Amino acid sequence: MAMEPCDSTFLSAYYQGVDRLLNDAAPGAASLSITVLPAYAPEWGLRLVGNEVIRVRLDKSYWTEVAIQQMRHPDATVAVAPAFRPLAQRAVMDGDAVQRILDRYRRAIAAAVPSGRVETDSVTYRITSPQAGSARMWAPEDDTPEAYLAEVIRLLADRVELTTPKDLYNNQTQILSALRRSDVN
Questions:
Q1: How large is the average pLDDT for residues 163-174?
Q2: Do the beta carbons of residue 109 and residue 129 sit within 8 Å?
Q3: For the chain, which terminus, N or C, has the lower number of CB atoms within 10 Å?
């Protein structure tokens, strides 16, 4: 199943709140923003800023802590938002590899088509590029272009934990391989 364009739902207070926390922890002009919204775990995201991969993890679920309270008390004039402690970790990546990632995700965003599908109990990936717009995908089926794009997201997230040149090289090789498998054109 192809990615879908983001509709106005993805402009709601919940999504804006999550993005605000992630973006504040990863300052700079992101050329690609990936926000990961798991159904039963804290939200997290990746930002590509220059040649840097920045993974930001929230210490608790924004959905549980804030969004549900807002839905239960929509008339509350003052919302007490809990303090979040986002953890940002960084890793550098080869400029050519970053460009390949940007190109592939921009093409995927441009090819996004509405499906009418609604998912609530899975992982939602929202991918945003200032040049291409935004698209989303839910936990993709195995061996699809979207599954390989989700694998790239996982590998980018893993990259910030790596320290040795060999591990970083192997990670980049895996990322480029997953990008190739995702590209059916």
A1: 96
A2: yes
A3: C
